[in-house]
Amino acid sequence: MYDIIGDIHGHGDELEILLQKLGYQRLNGVYQHPSRQAIFLGDFIDRGPNIRGVLHIVKDMVDSGFAQAIMGNHEFNAVCFATKNKIEGGYFREHSVEKIKQHLRTLEQFRPFPKEWDMFLTWFKHLPMFLELDHCKMVHAYWNDDNITWLKKNYRPTEEGLSHEFLANCYQKELPGFKPVEESLKGPEHKLPEGQYMVDKEGILREECRLRWWATEKETMGQGVMECPEALVDDPIPDGVDRSVFTSDRPVFFGHYWLSGIPEIVNEHAICLDYSVAKGGRLVAARITEGKISLIY
Q1: Is residue 68 predicted with pLDDT exceeding 90?
Q2: Which one, of 102, 130, 119, lies nearest residue 56 by Cα?
Q3: What share of the chain is helix, strand, coil (3-state, %, to 5)?
Q4: What percent of the chain has pLDDT over 90?
Q5: Residue 246 burial (CB < 10 Å; 0-12/13-18/19+)?
Q6: Looking at the chain, which terminus has fewer C-beta neighbours within 10 angstroms, N or C?
Q7: Model confidence over 81-126: pLDDT tens digits?
Q8: Cα 228 off chain centre by
Q9: In terms of DSSP H, where are the helices of 141-243?
């Protein structure tokens, strides 16, 4: 069965400790388990002290058949940052001070290894954006059936992957691929009331808030919004936000949201495994054994 691992963000020591705790051993340079397979939910890069080491561990496991991996928004961003936009000039992700700062640790750690970085970028381009297995589903940030249907029709990771043609179809809001890619990798958002803003993990002020789409209660802003401004905590969720409780025929595992505290399963149909290892939190895995789910960290 499967061990599903949340966002790593370059924290190689924590990854090795967790793999060993899960019973994986490093044989011939590759972590492996005699009867289980790891599944990684993306966001391998940026922020941490050993991004290169993390990528080698994960890719080696995938190449050897001991793991599967999906794309996170940071891998998508890295490809966009490195891919020239032949339509408008520049790159599909702008090289602004803010964007460079977000990606700087990865660029610095791979500066002595440019050929390796090119190899990993090529690998990123061919990662799936979701997985559907017999007992579970995986996506980095948000499972929406309409978005997944669009990706099934238009994204072919084993063939062209994140080609220029694909990126040209999803890099602006008015393009048909923007919403499926943006929401699958970064989650649904909603504009805050005029004059209100949230402060994200980078300290950047944002006028749109991330929605707790997996929450079982979301009548108020405090229940349904990530990093909700204090003044809005008790306000009702705005019109247009889906207040229904997410359900699925198989549990959906995802990362992305920088949760804190003791890992827990809030909604058995949608289970977040990102507990902020890059901010001193925990690297978390969900172990599926005979249909039962346990969190290990």
Answers
A1: yes
A2: 119
A3: 30, 20, 50
A4: 88
A5: middle
A6: N
A7: 999 999 999 999 999 999 999 999 999 999 999 999 999 999 999 9
A8: 21
A9: 145-154, 164-167, 178-186, 221-224
CB contact set of 147 (below 8 Å; sequence gap of 6+): 179, 180, 183, 184
Residue pair 109/117 in contact by the 8 Å Cβ criterion: no
Residue count of the chain: 297
Query: Residue written as tokens 């505290």?
Result: 261
Q: Give residue 193's Cα distance to chain centre.
A: 27
pTM recorded for the entire structure: 0.95
Question: Is the pLDDT assigned to residue 127 strictly greater than 70?
Answer: yes
Dump pLDDT digits (tens) for 242-251: 899 999 999 9
Quote the distance between the C-alpha of residue 190 and its chain's center.
19
CA distances from 59 to 79, 123, 148 (A): 16, 8, 24
Read off the amino acid at residue 4.
Answer: I
| Residue 75 to residue 274: CA distance in whole angstroms | 16
Nearest to 55 by CA among 103, 7, 17, 12: 12
Q: What is the pLDDT of residue 181?
A: 98
How far is residue 94's CA from residue 92's CA, in Å, rounded to a whole number? Answer: 6
Residue 9 has pLDDT above 80, yes or no: yes
Residue recorded with tokens 């924590």:
14
Strand 137-139 to 189-191 pairing: unpaired
The pLDDT of residue 201 is 64
Cβ atoms of 65 and 124 within 8 Å: the answer is no
Structural domains in the chain, sorted by start: 2-186+245-296 (3.60.21.10)
Mean pLDDT of the chain: 95
